[in-house]
Amino acid sequence: MAEPAAQRRSAQVACGGLAWGPIWRLPQAQSWGGEDNVAPRQGADSGDSTNQGGESRGRVGHDSSHRNQPSPEATGPDQGAAAALQAAIARAQAELEALADRIQGPDGADGREILGFQLAVLDDPSLAAPAFAALGPGGVDRPTAEAAWMAALDAEIAPYLSDPDEHFRTRASDLIDLRDRVRAQLRPGGAEALQATAKPAGAVLLADDLTPSQFLTLDWSGGGAIVLAAGSPASHVALLARSRAIPMLVGTGVLPAGARVACVDGESGAVIFDPEPATLAQFAQRLDAAARIRLQASPALERPVLTASGEAVTVLLNIDDPAQLRNLDPRVCDGIGLARSEFLFLASGAADPATGLPDEDTQTQLYGDLLRWADGRPVTVRTLDLGGDKPQPGQARAEIDPALGLRGLRLSLLHPEGFLIQLRALARAACEGDLRVLLPMVTLPQEFEAAAALLDQALAELEAAKIPCRRPALGVMLEVPADALAAERFNADFYAIGSNDLSQYTLAAGRSHADLAALQRAGWPVVLELIGLCIKAAERRGRSICLCGEAATDPGQLEDLLSAGLRAISVPPPRLATVQQVIGAHGA
Asked: Which residues of 106-143 are buried (b: 16+ CB within 10 A; e: fewer)?
């Protein structure tokens, strides 16, 4: 039998890192969850009777007061089908509870919270009400319990899948998870358990998509990776993968049916199926080199990072989700240089109706958690960078040119009621430590001043209500040529350079467009010249400046940035060791 030919696919990176191994696919005929098929977390005490899952569910408003109560619609003629559906929902709830209870220890906090969110949704009678209504009086054309449930859930899922906001589209995965779990309980024989040991250690999981409970059912203690034909970097599954450092790629398109081995490159966003022996050897060498760098750099990460000539370089973290900080010692960095607050859309808690985000109290707690983790180090939170192709909830207007439309601060200023909630929460959290607030997509100094005036308003409102608060430093993100060329005109407390968008807008070339990668590389000197102007402007104003984009993670570009005088960078946690090596060799 001929060996499969090597194939390479590009993908979006949900969690970085390198991995290779045999391919393992999701069994098609089996369902997920259940107390007997959950892999215990490493270090978990399976005898611990503390219901940690219940604590998490309490934070999302979980209320079991109506658990297992017959729905009002379950009183029609087809009470058998309605009762079967009610029982299936109850069994699915029990599965989720058992799964949450088995995920013990700090590593499982994110998983318990996600499962708590699913339980709260499943426990809401309005979710199943259309299905029970369909099983009421209706003659011979009444659907089966399974058909009624599927129709009701598909109708609930459809608006999420078609929402232009990626963060809302990702919520469909939780509903799909619930839909399929209950459906399995409605089929003859109930759900067939999938043993957690089914996935071989180190295997690369291939699937069209993956639900949160599927991820949590599997045993990841032996490593491995995930490659999805669909999926999203903003999904709950991506959050779980990042919290456990499982390399994950999404959006590859149709996956090869006969592939046996995969090399997952979470640095370049590519997967190679059935690599040639030489390619596999090269990949193994990269893995060994990465392991050596981590081993060599880990002790030194607790000390100031110096160039070869002894100049200190501030090394901060970029985070998309607080889960990335779990099990990470804050001493490995100088603080958080960019916390993208879009993670709020994945947070549990009471939602503000104006924005769809957690309310002010919940946001204050989340920002405070970042400061407590940083242990006195600075934390920079970027205000919401929505708009364009990621419209704010409730925004009906479609953008003709998404990248050039209502984005970032422009959108926040257009909806000040939601922006003020975030600013008040940030001002309250600033009492906990060195909090800094970064404004994205700023073009003119007048926009910055308008945001500063809203911050003043937020502080005045808090002080009038006698709520403790403190004014955080307010900075501007230099990511369009207009503000990069006029950086000195902004009365900002600090600057940050967003090299990704600065490159995109300077070269008029989308950075995610594969056919324009060569243009991005060739245009780098022009972008570097603009960055140099930003660095000099910050020096003249006596303000700090940091670069938060991907340029800081590329060894060649980082060398150029250091030569241009940059002395502060912010990078994703997995790149800390690599950038330290580049900095340590600079100027040798």
From this structure: ebbbbbbbbbbbbbbbbbeeebbebbbbbbbeeeeebb
| Token representation of residue 143 | 């659907």
Tally the C-alpha atoms within 13 A of residue 356's C-alpha that lie toward its C-beta: 16
Catalytic residue (choose from 15, 62, 167, 236) = 236
DSSP annotation of 358 reads B
Q: What pLDDT does residue 532 have?
A: 97
Interval 285-325: pLDDT, tens: 888 776 665 555 555 555 689 999 999 999 999 988 887 78
Alpha helix stretches (DSSP H) within 301-359: none
Planar angle of CA 508, 527, 383, nearest 5 degrees: 80
| Residue 498 to residue 443: CA distance in whole angstroms | 13
Question: Rg of the Cα trace of the chain?
Answer: 25
| Residue from 273, 248, 306, 341 nearest 12 by CA | 248
User: What proportions of the chain, in percent to the nearest 5, are helix, strand and coil?
Assistant: 50, 15, 35
The DSSP letter of residue 138 is -
Catalytic residue (choose from 469, 534, 546, 548): 548
Residue reference for tokens 């990470």: 328
Rounded Cα distance, 318 and 491, in Å: 24
The separation between the first and the last C-alpha atoms of the chain, rounded to the nearest angstrom, is: 54
Question: Which residue, among 125, 108, 11, has the nearest Cα to 53 in the 3D structure?
Answer: 108
Contact between 178 and 121 under an 8 Å Cβ cutoff? The reply is: yes
What pLDDT is attached to residue 492?
97
CA–CA separation, 568 vs 18, rounded Å? 26
35-49, 150-164, 291-305, 407-421: least confident range: 35-49
Based on the number of CB atoms within 10 Å of its own CB, is 299 exposed (0-12), middle (13-18) or buried (19 or more)? exposed
In SS3 terms, 41-91 reads as CCCCCCCCCCCHHHHHHHHCCCCCCCCCCCCHHHHCCCHHHHHHHHHHHHH
Residue 236 is among the residues annotated as catalytic for this protein: yes
Percent of the chain with pLDDT over 90: 43
pTM assigned to the model: 0.62
- Whether 415 is a known active-site residue: answer no
One-character DSSP codes across 1-22: -PPPPPEEEE-EEEE--EEEEE
Pairing mode, if any, of strands 225-228 and 18-25?
Answer: unpaired
Which residue's structure tokens are 């069209």?
208
Measured between alpha carbons, how far is residue 3 from residues 143, 202, 273, 277, 556 in Å? Answer: 48, 22, 12, 12, 38
